[in-house]
Amino acid sequence: MSNFDELINSYREEFLKDLDELLRIRSVSAEGSEVPTQALSWMLKKAESFGLKTKNIGGIAGHAEYGEGETLCGVLTHLDVVPANAADWSCEPFALTRKNGRMYGRGVADDKGAALAALYCLRALKESGVKGNRVRVIFGTSEEIGMKDMETYFDAEPLPDLGFTPDSEYGICRAEKGIMHIEISSEKANNTSLMQFEAGSANNVVPDTAYAILDCSDYEEHNLQRLADAAGKGAFDLRFTIDGLKVTAHGKAAHACEPEKGENAASMLAGIICAVMGKESVGDLCTFINYCIGRETNGLSMGIKMRDAVSGSLTVTLSRVHITEREAKAILDIRYPVSFLEEVVLYQIKKVAAREGLSVRLIDGEKPLSLDENTPIVRVLKDAYKNVTGEEPLLYTTGGGTYARTLGGKGVAFGPVFPGDDSRIHNSDESIDEENFFRHFRICLEAMNGMMTYGG
Predict the structure, then answer these.
(1) β-pairing verdict for 134-140 and 72-78
(2) pTM recorded for the entire structure
(3) Are 137 and 63 in contact (CB under 8 A)?
(4) Phi, psi (degrees; rounded to nearest 5) at 395
(5) What is the helix (H) or strand (E) element at residue 118, kind and residue range?
(6) Cβ pair 185, 329 in contact under 8 A
(7) Using one digit for the tens of pLDDT, what is the confidence trace for 407-432?
(8) Helix, strand or coil for residue 427?
(9) CA–CA dist 8, 178 (Å, integer)
(10) Is 338:397 a contact under the CB 8 Å cutoff?
């Protein structure tokens, strides 16, 4: 036990230097695979410098491994991140900034910090001479855009016998809601005065900015300005451009698993436009967004409001909108309770959209995950958490989607963020409390040690 504490303390400055280097790799998966692949190469090279076995699977995923036993254990992490607009940050997003007891940077909490910590834990097990099961730290590069990386990885490599992903919160996440990304579109762009509507850069983020360009009358412009003023300072900006009146909405970003923590700029913008201009002016899709989604996050107006006792309520996020004079489409992120079926939710959305002449397409989906508290990995993680903190971990559910659901019922999400620590994941100024992070480092090492010595 004390040896682990000493090792983590001895790694601290080296770890922080490596974390800064890793954060500087702009591995935004939504912008393409090239830079996330660079982050994977960097991580595997670092693992090799620690004397660990490594394997690269097609440039999209890979692992570092230690141990010789027959049982295979996994710690699944991802190196890709969501976009970051530097103008919205108080510091450089793609670097490590330490201030006021916190570490800032895109990926510091989701999930580069935890990925690097897991690799250092594997190093600690090796340097401590721990013997037992094989433990792999698995790295992916497209978790934020659908987890195709893990499909590729597990097509080539076996599923672990037990595992966890440090990509959520403490205590132990025993259930994850189902996830759907759907596209709603109009076959014809019938918006006569709405020249353009743009919002969102990722499917799993509440958009904090949206803009529209309108060909409107002086009377409509006057009413738009009146509503913008009534919304409060900073909510909307109006200015004339060569193409028409540009209306910009300013909201608050949030992870789509908790849309109620954000302020959806796309919904705000649709609301103000539809309040002033008619359906023929703005088109079917913008009207649908306003009346069937609006500022809701529970799906009530689409008839999909639902909940269960295990995982809570369904959530809906209008994450992206793209409307021009030629096409109109929007993307919704939907998180549904574990006891419901994707097919039921999709059927209802299609029925409501069809009334407005709109088409619905499922882009991708992830089935729900639910584990019993007596499964082996839950028992191992309970022991690890209690050994370090002296407390029993809370078992909870989330609307977040993690690699745990790729483990065939043998894995859960576990850390790195402690309750009450507003890490602003998927938002500007993403950060994590530094001392809490190193406490996570210690818990992660205890958990990996527990898996390595697990005897069934």
Answers:
(1) parallel
(2) 0.78
(3) yes
(4) -95, 130
(5) helix 112-128
(6) yes
(7) 988 999 999 999 999 999 988 999 99
(8) coil
(9) 36
(10) yes
